[in-house]
Amino acid sequence: MTTIELLQRSIEYIEKNLKGEISLSELAEFEGFSTYHFSHIFCDFVGMPVTAFITKRRLQHIIYDVQNGSKLIDTVLLYGFDTHAGFFKAFKREFGCSPTKFLKINTAKKPKAVNLLRESRVKLTQTQIRQLLSNWDIETKADICNTFTAGGAMKSNNSWVIGDKYIFKTGRNIAGLKTHIDISRALQKSGMVAACPVKTKNGEDFLVENGRFYVLTNQIIGELLNPEQRYTGDRIATGKKYGEAIGNLHRILKSQDSNLDVNDSNLFDTVINWALPETKRNMEQWGCPLPDEFYSDYTENFSKLYDKLPKHIIHRDANPSNIMFNNGEVSGFIDFDISE
Fold this sequence. Notes:
Blueprint: H1 3-16, H2 24-31, H3 35-46, H4 50-67, H5 72-78, H6 84-95, H7 99-105, H8 116-120, H9 126-133, E1 144-149, E2 154-162, E3 166-171, H10 174-189, E4 207-209, E5 212-218, H11 227-231, H12 235-255, H13 267-285, H14 292-305, E6 323-326, E7 329-333
Helix pairs in contact: 2-3, 13-14
């Protein structure tokens, strides 16, 4: 069996035994690895440590079962938590609020089975990546690592870290890639750190094979802040840093407006029908709700002002999953593919 097949077998074992004892050492021994090696490869493929994965799956099943009529305390004990207090602490760390509050503002979805074998079919092997990297004048023996979103909670299937300098990415939205490249270069000329493409040996910005693009960009140093980092601690200071960085970004984009060509769209519909409801849900879930008057006033005044506001290019997706932090400060923005 391949490594990924062994890990899939472990995941299926975990899923079947969420209501019982699951020993990391027994899992490792069953698959023929040392505990250290098993922990390392599990985290590499799944995106989180074994114990964190088990806890997250238990929490997902508990909240779904409770939503569908099970008693909370009985379900908590059934899934292996020794105390309600221990469960509550783990749940709040994962979701930012109590189970009761979570169910008031969310609908718990039935946990989907994790299938590494299915996901692996859309990923390139390291051998394939190294072969593609031979089109660039770089050290092709550099380490290849997976990339993660949301502070390491979810693996990206279309990008990889190459050594300590580059990001390698693939996709099919070539028009979006060209937009990203144009904006990144404009930002770089204005003095902002940006993920610009590294030229291929043939002097091209990216490679195209079988309808897919492959692009190598310089790496922006830093990490994405996860929800706990954003919404706990000094969240006002963190929010201010996000806001100032986004403002500075769009000041530069405005200055480059005449040099860039992007899609036009109805931003009003996006803000009213998606951004505001999503903001309200997240703020309530993580214990920092805004008064209802904020949303009603925003909607009313934005409706009046929208047609009068000046238009210029925006990132379009300047959310925390696309904003890098390094040493407590914003270090750069990524993914300008859908800028408008």
